[in-house]
Design goal:
Blueprint (H helix, E strand, L loop, with lengths): L8 E5 L4 H12 L3 E6 L2 H13 L4 E5 L5 H15 L4 E4 L14 H28 L3 H6 L7 E6 L12 H21 L4 E8 L5 H14 L5 H8 L9 H12 L10 E4 L7
Helix pairs in contact: 1-9, 3-4, 4-6
Length: about 270
Amino acid sequence: MEQRLAGKVAIVTGAGQGIGQGVALRLAREGADLVIAEFNPQTAALVAQQVAALGRRALAYPIDVGDVSALRQMVTSVTQQFGHIDILVNNAGITQTKPMLELAETDWDMIHTVNQRGLFFCLQAVALQMVRQIPENVKTAGRAERSYGKIVNLSSISGRRGRPLATHYAATKAAIISITQSAALALAPYNINVNAVSPSVVPTPMWKQIDLDRGRLFGSQPGEAQAAFIENIPLKRAATLEDIAGAIAFFCSADADYITGQTLNVDGGFEMD
């Protein structure tokens, strides 16, 4: 595979399974060294071993992204160990299936702490380090001729329209689109690119949980909810991990140096905006 990311250091949050794992391995295959920022230390270690087997440096970094002080410490630790940070993939996220009228404050806070608050403060901490890495004359000019960092946030097609069975989740994913645009504008003088990807159905542990939760709500059999959703996708299939990882790797590469503030639907045509 082309080494578009050779020499780069990438942090991928929530990289212990699912999309995050797929992204970490794709970036490693393209030449990046990886920080596996993951809540579960066991899965973090396993993915770090997979990255190392590809010949890249790997650091398993157990972390709760809802802990802002821990995020800042992670950036400091990674910089000390690797020397620089070039890429952040803000992937960590959780979901919950629950009717809107039944949502409690604890449900709302749980989802927002990880998906929105955690994502923003991780972005902020990494962006501050990326800016510190830029030569002073470039910062003074307020204009950079080349990219000095890539940040990719994981939104969702749920951020494109209302979801009455996941109102709080959809709200966080819509917020991520806005955060992406704001961050792209704030970091444009430093030529730090900020974009987002919105997947649809991906066969991950998160989607298995959604399927089970909907089964309990509506009495459907395992797999029925996912199959019904896929039926409404024009390409008539779920996304693969490589579908999502390929789009993210593109945003992390020099091929996307002139793209910022964008949210790309990787959804088989489900949303077309």
